[in-house]
Each structure stands twice: as structure tokens, then as C-alpha cells.
Automatic annotation (TrEMBL):
This is pyridoxal 5'-phosphate synthase. InterPro entries: Pyridox_Oxase (IPR000659), Pyridox_Oxase_CS (IPR019740), Pyridox_Oxase_N (IPR011576), Pyridoxamine_oxidase_dimer_C (IPR019576), Split_barrel_FMN-bd (IPR012349). Keywords: Flavoprotein, FMN, Oxidoreductase. It comes from the Eukaryota. It is an enzyme of class 1 (oxidoreductase). Pathway: Cofactor metabolism; pyridoxal 5'-phosphate salvage; pyridoxal 5'-phosphate from pyridoxamine 5'-phosphate: step 1/1; Cofactor metabolism; pyridoxal 5'-phosphate salvage; pyridoxal 5'-phosphate from pyridoxine 5'-phosphate: step 1/1. The keyword Flavoprotein applies. Gene3D superfamilies: Electron Transport, Fmn-binding Protein, Chain A (2.30.110.10). It comes from Bombardia bombarda. One of its GO terms (biological process) is pyridoxine biosynthetic process. Signal peptide: none annotated. Its EC number is 1.4.3.5.
């Protein structure tokens, strides 16, 4: 049998009054700060699962990534968007019509010691090259070279003897090292950079006993040019509702 979630029971669980009434971004900041405390027992609270879906098949792919930035617009990760599976799912494969881009994506954060989960659903948008360069410059040189060298998700061809394909990757790295030899000013590749998930729906999940978990979901209500929401022209707001477990 699966273990019970008991940490929130003595505090009466998660209540609507515990959550920020207007913004899931502000609420995420609060939970992330708690997950980042040394005593929380969570080594990398920025770890999350990114899920995308390919069109027209609807086939879903998921992978673990790191959240690198969070701002009022959304959740930012960095990756290869040229040859990777996520690039195929999000942006399609070009003009041949074999794959249509699907910008809908989701993130899931799981902080087991706190018995908490956050689910984010929204549309993806690439950061500008200038924005990506700012983060790229903070990476160690080897990681910057690696971003140029790796044809992410491409099949590596085995060589002679016991080589299983790693030698091909190391060859690409050697070529890239030669290209940027003598300089630490390495430009961010055009195919690499930041991706912001702009949330439309964010769920905060607190484990409870007997699988009667507390779930609260924020959903975006879009404003419009003729008056917006509650008469506030052009502004978006968020609803907040409790969900059944």
C-alpha cells in the first residue's frame, strides 16, 4: 500500500485562506521559498517535468528539466530548440507538413518531503536571443560549448571496436572547442535558448490522509479591448477554486 500523506493533517490541511488570492505566480514564489529552505530536505526544488504533445498524432513526451527563471509572465527553462523532441512537438518540423507545432505544454513540480505538487499548463514562447544570451553567459564554458556541439536527440553512429557512438559526440565537441579557441565570448546558438511557459492554469496540491488531498486551481480570465475583466481594460485576472481530490 502507498504511504499516507500526514504532514498537513495537524495544521488542518491547505485552505483557500492560505493561498494568494490574486496570483499563482506569487503563490508559487511562496511554496518555492519553502521548498528551498535548507531544512526542507529538497536538494533541487527547481527540478520539474516538462510535457509536450506532438501533432497530429497527439503522442505525448515528458522529460525532467530545471526551472531557471520565474517572472510575472511565466516559467522559464533553457534547452535546444533545433533538433530536440520538444522542438518537434512545440514548433513542428517545417514546411513539409509532417508535424504541426503545438505550443501547449505543462510543467509538474513534485516536492515529496513537503507532500506538495504544482501543476502548470500554458502556452510556450521562445525568449529573444538577447534574453537567452544573458543566461547563457552564466554557464560554465563546457556547458556553452556543449550547447553548440550537441545535436540533441540525434542518433549517434557507433564507430570501430567497442565505441557505441560516444566518439562521434566527442568529435563534435572537439570541433566546437577549436572554433571558439582563445575566446570566452561565445554567442548563444540560434537553435538554443529560453522557453517561457505562460500559464493559463496552475494547480497547487497538498497531500492529505486517505487520498483526500487538498487541490486548488487558478485559471486565467483574459481581459479584452472593450473593458477587460471587471471593467479593467486589457488586464487578465485569475479565478481560484477548490477541486475534489
Amino acid at each position: 500500500q502507498a504511504a499516507q500523506f500526514l504532514k498537513a493533517e495537524t495544521a488542518g490541511g491547505l485552505r483557500r485562506s492560505d493561498l494568494d488570492p490574486s496570483s499563482p505566480i506569487a503563490q508559487f514564489h511562496a511554496w518555492y521559498a519553502a521548498a528551498s529552505q535548507p531544512g526542507a530536505g529538497i536538494a533541487h526544488p527547481e527540478t520539474c517535468t516538462l510535457a509536450t504533445a506532438q501533432l497530429p498524432s497527439g503522442r505525448v513526451s515528458a522529460r525532467v528539466v530545471y526551472l531557471k527563471e520565474l517572472d510575472p509572465r511565466g516559467f522559464v527553462i533553457y534547452s535546444n530548440f533545433g533538433t530536440s523532441g520538444k522542438a518537434r512537438d512545440l514548433f513542428g518540423t517545417g514546411s513539409d507538413g509532417s508535424s504541426t507545432g503545438n505550443l501547449w505544454a505543462s510543467l509538474v513540480f513534485w516536492w515529496e518531503p513537503l507532500e506538495r505538487q504544482v501543476r502548470v499548463e500554458g502556452r510556450a514562447a521562445r525568449l529573444t536571443r538577447e534574453e537567452s544570451q544573458v543566461y547563457y553567459d552564466t554557464r560554465v564554458r563546457g556547458s556553452r560549448v556543449g550547447a553548440w556541439a550537441s545535436r540533441q536527440s540525434a542518433v549517434l553512429t557507433p564507430g570501430e571496436g567497442s565505441d557505441d557512438g560516444r566518439a562521434q559526440l566527442e568529435g563534435w565537441i572537439k570541433e566546437t572547442e577549436g572554433r571558439f579557441e582563445g575566446t570566452d565570448q561565445i554567442p548563444v546558438p540560434e537553435f538554443w535558448g529560453g522557453l517561457r511557459i505562460v500559464p493559463e492554469r496552475v494547480e497547487f496540491w497538498q497531500g492529505r490522509q486517505n487520498r483526500l488531498h487538498d487541490r486548488f486551481v487558478y485559471e486565467r480570465v483574459h481581459g479584452d479591448e472593450t473593458g477587460g475583466v471587471d471593467g479593467l481594460q486589457g488586464e487578465d485576472k485569475w479565478t481560484l477554486q477548490r477541486l475534489s481530490p
